[in-house]
Write a structure and sequence with these properties.
It is built from seven helices and ten strands. Strand 5, helix 4 and strand 6 form a beta-alpha-beta unit. Helix 1 crosses helix 6, helix 2 runs parallel beside helix 3 and helix 3 runs parallel beside helix 4. The chain is globular, with a radius of gyration of 17 Å. The chain starts with a strand and ends with a helix.
Length: about 240
C-alpha cells in the first residue's frame, strides 16, 4: 500500500484531502502542529528538520499544504521562515527520501502582482509573478516557494504545483480568509469593496483536484484548481 504524506493535514483543506485519500484506500501520514484523529500523525512544525525527515520516511507521495496562510502578520518574517524556507526543507527531505511524486500547494496570490491590469481580469497557469512583484510578504513567500519547487524539479524531483483559488465548504471552523470574507460581507463588517473577479472552489472538489495533480499531473507543471469566476457585484447580490 502506498503512503501519502500530507503536511498541514489538520487544516481545512488538508483534513479534506486526508479523508479523500483514506476513502481511496491509501495509507496516510500527517505532519502538523495540531492533532488529527484516526490517522498516523507527527505533531511538529515543518521548521523541525528532524521531524520532517521522520515523517517523510517511506512516503511515496507528498502533498505539501502546510504554511502560514494569513494575508498579513505582525512578524512578517514568519512567511519567509515557514512558507519559503519550510518548503525548501520539505523538498530537501523529499529528495533524500526518494519520494515518487511531490504536490506543492501554492496560492492564487502568485497569479497577481503589481503589474496586473487595473480592474477585473483573469489569470491562468501561464500567469506568473516574480517575488519582487508581490504585494506583500505572504505572496512573496509563496512565489519564492514555487521557485524552490522548480529548482527541485531541475534537480530531478517529480513535482507539480497546484494553485487553489478560494476554497469554501462546511467545516472551516477557524475561518480561512475566503470564509472570513463571506462572513464579514454577510454581516456588514466590510465597509467597502472593489470591482473585481473572484473564483471559489468547493473544498471537496479541491481535494479531488490535488489527488488528480498527483496521479495525472505532468512533472514541473502548474495547475489552477478553481471553479466559476464570480464578480464582486454578483457575490454581494447573492449574499
Amino acid at each position: 500500500m502506498s503512503l501519502s504524506l500530507v503536511t498541514g493535514g489538520a487544516g481545512f483543506v488538508g483534513g479534506r484531502l486526508v479523508r479523500a485519500l483514506q476513502a481511496r484506500g491509501e495509507r496516510v501520514r500527517v505532519i502538523d502542529l495540531n492533532p488529527v484523529a484516526d490517522v498516523e500523525a507527527v505533531m511538529a512544525s515543518i521548521e523541525d528538520v528532524s521531524a520532517v525527515r521522520a515523517a517523510m520516511a517511506g512516503a511515496d507521495v507528498v502533498y505539501h499544504l502546510a504554511g502560514d496562510a494569513q494575508l498579513w502578520a505582525r512578524d512578517a518574517g514568519r512567511f519567509e521562515r515557514i512558507n519559503h524556507q519550510g518548503t525548501r526543507a520539505i523538498l530537501t527531505a523529499a529528495v533524500e527520501a526518494g519520494v515518487r511524486r511531490f504536490v506543492h500547494c501554492s496560492s492564487l496570490t502568485t497569479l497577481v502582482g503589481r503589474s496586473a491590469p487595473i480592474g477585473p481580469s483573469t489569470a491562468d497557469e501561464t500567469t506568473e509573478i516574480s517575488p519582487q512583484e508581490a504585494f506583500s510578504g505572504y505572496p512573496r513567500s509563496k512565489a519564492l516557494a514555487e521557485q524552490a519547487v522548480r529548482e527541485a524539479v531541475a534537480r530531478g524531483l517529480d513535482a507539480v504545483i497546484a494553485i487553489p483559488t478560494e476554497p469554501l465548504g462546511a467545516g472551516d471552523v477557524s475561518l480561512t480568509p475566503p470564509s472570513r470574507m463571506i462572513v464579514d460581507l454577510a454581516n456588514g463588517r466590510m465597509p467597502a469593496t472593489i470591482d473585481c473577479l473572484l473564483n471559489f472552489v468547493a473544498v471537496d472538489s479541491l481535494a479531488d483536484g490535488l489527488i488528480a495533480a498527483a496521479t495525472r499531473g505532468k512533472r514541473g507543471q502548474r495547475y489552477v484548481l478553481g471553479g466559476e469566476n464570480v464578480s464582486m457585484a454578483r457575490l454581494l447580490a447573492e449574499i
